[in-house]
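hiii so um. not sure if this is the right channel but i have a protein structure encoded as tokens and i wanna go backwards to a sequence. like what aa goes where. can anyone help
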């Protein structure tokens, strides 16, 4: 039985998720809320092993395999970490969740959305985040922000058009689910993004 709240943060590369997660963590702690940070793919012992496989630059795989592994990792994540934490009344803040599968595997890879929805039904059985913060930034700005990083992982090696499709898919999901997915302009300063997030979180 869920008692805590489940918040996810998503967006294209370089939108500032990692930066804002720390802000949200501090904000909620200051309100006296116990919150754990987690991420996808990953978040559990098995999930982190699957993450390494998914992101390794030499893991060539079929797009369906990629999708199935994302959901296999998610299944472990939900059962070993997310649901038990929520049941004890604590909150969970996840760096990415199912919306990323719709955006990257659906939008980016062009996989059939109905297949993703079938996996979502099977694995999540109606369970959804209470709120999703979608950090939106034009792809070229996001890429410039992460340009100084070292070697790119397997998904980061995709081209600009892939990430544009990912962004478009995120935006259309926020239009489809406006109550849950809060679209946030992340193209300006980190402080500007944090201020928008704070306003939205205060409504919870
Ligand atoms: N993936 C998938 O395909 N399907 C799925 O179902 C799931 C995931 C769950 C791993 O995700 C990959 O998995 C990801 C999607 C795929 N692939 N890609 N690409 P990840 O979240 O671990 O990795 P990531 O997307 O590469 O995250 P990221 O690059 O770390 O993005 P970020 O967290 O949004 O960026 P950041 O580290 O906060 O910020 C990047 C830099 O910009 C950093 O130097 C900051 O200091 C700077 N920054 C942040 N905010 C600002 C502002 N406002 N202005 C200027 N500079 C800023």
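sure thing!! here u go:
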């Amino acid at each position: 039985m869920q008692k805590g709240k489940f918040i996810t943060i998503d967006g294209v590369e370089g939108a500032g998720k990692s930066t804002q997660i720390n802000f949200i963590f501090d904000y909620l702690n200051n309100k006296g809320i116990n919150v754990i940070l987690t991420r996808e793919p990953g978040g559990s012992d098995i999930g982190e092993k699957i993450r390494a496989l998914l992101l390794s630059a030499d893991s060539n795989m079929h797009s369906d395999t990629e999708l199935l592994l994302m959901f296999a990792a998610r299944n472990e994540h939900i059962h070993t970490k997310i649901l038990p934490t929520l049941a004890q009344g604590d909150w969970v803040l996840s760096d990415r969740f199912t919306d990323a599968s719709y955006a990257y595997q659906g939008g980016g890879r062009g996989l059939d959305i109905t297949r993703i929805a079938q996996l979502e039904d099977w694995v999540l059985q109606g369970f959804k985040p209470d709120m999703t913060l979608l950090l939106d930034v034009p792809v070229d700005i996001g890429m410039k922000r992460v340009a100084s990083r070292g070697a790119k992982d397997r998904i980061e090696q995709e081209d600009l058009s892939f990430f544009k499709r990912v962004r478009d898919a995120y935006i259309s999901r926020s239009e489809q689910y406006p109550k849950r997915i809060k679209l946030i302009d992340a193209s300006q300063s980190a402080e500007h993004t944090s201020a928008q997030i704070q306003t939205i979180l205060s409504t919870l």
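oh and The longest strand covers residues 6-11.
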